[in-house]
Structures are given as C-alpha cells and as structure tokens.
C-alpha cells in the first residue's frame, strides 16, 4: 500500500494489509472472521476486503486476549457493536465495564494465590491431601478417583 495518499482512507484493506498493520497472521484473521469477531466484504474477484475500522476491532481483541478474557466472551461483547465504523470512546467504555468485574475477580484470585505461595515456600508439607493450594479441605477426596483440579475461590472445576 502506498503511504501518504490522503484519498486512500475510504479504500478497504486487503487481508494482507490488515495482517501487516495488526501484526497478526492471515490465518488468525480468517479464524476471527469465522468466529464472527470481524467481518469482510468481497471484491468482484471474491477477495476479502476489510473496512479500516477492523484495525481497531483487532486491537481490542488482542488487548482483551492479553488480559485473559476467553475468545467466546470477546465475541459476545463485540457482537453488540457495529462492524461498519471504528469503535468510539463510548463503545470502549461499555466493553471495559463488561470486563471490569471479571478482571477484578481474577486479580483477587491471583493475589490470594500469590499470598498462599509465599506461605508455602519451604513449608515441606508435600501433602496432596492437605495442601490448601492443590486440594483445599480435601474437597476432592469425595469425588472419586482420578485427577481433579478446582479453584478454591469459587468451588468449580
């Protein structure tokens, strides 16, 4: 793509241009499209063409993934936003509020885990039955044989 041309902003981007600008492989963009995270139009030659707004959506997806938000939740949150324009400050505020509570909970869990690890260093208990990090209160003992992991903060598998 030729740089510096002012009349080029309305032109849609090829998948290669989006890949180059976003730093993602073309295969990832195709995957995002199959999941409904982004959309493309088709040229007369049946080639994908993306509106420039897709670059902001891809950036939001990447940021959300870095924070540990599952792709299904990202898709759900983005599904209510328009694909035909860049995300606005208001759009971003809605998205961030959607994820804020979840991120606060994750931070609390990680902080608790860190604090438990500090106490465990050098404790020497080596007890898979009693260890509060691996099997709190021996909750897994009653569930039968086989490997099981739980989060002691929420009690789910």
Task: Furnish the topology, listing elements before pairings.
Blueprint: E1 13-14, H1 15-22, H2 26-34, E2 41-42, E3 48-50, H3 54-66, H4 71-78, H5 89-120
Antiparallel strand pairs: 1-3, 2-3
Structural notes for this entry:
This protein is mostly helical and 157 residues long. It is 45% helix and 4% strand. The chain has helices at residues 15-22, 26-34, 54-66, 71-78, 89-120; strands spanning 13-14, 41-42, 48-50. It is elongated. Residues 1-6 and 149-157 have low confidence and may be disordered.
Short description:
With 157 residues, the protein is mainly alpha-helical. It has helices at 15-22, 26-34, 54-66, 71-78, 89-120; strands spanning 13-14, 41-42, 48-50. The chain has a 3-stranded antiparallel β-sheet.
Number of DSSP helices? 5
The percent range for strand residues is under 5%
Helix proportion: 40-55%
Q: What does the radius of gyration come to?
A: 23 Å
Strand segment count: 3
Decide which structural class fits the backbone.
mainly alpha
Annotation keywords:
157 residues, mainly alpha
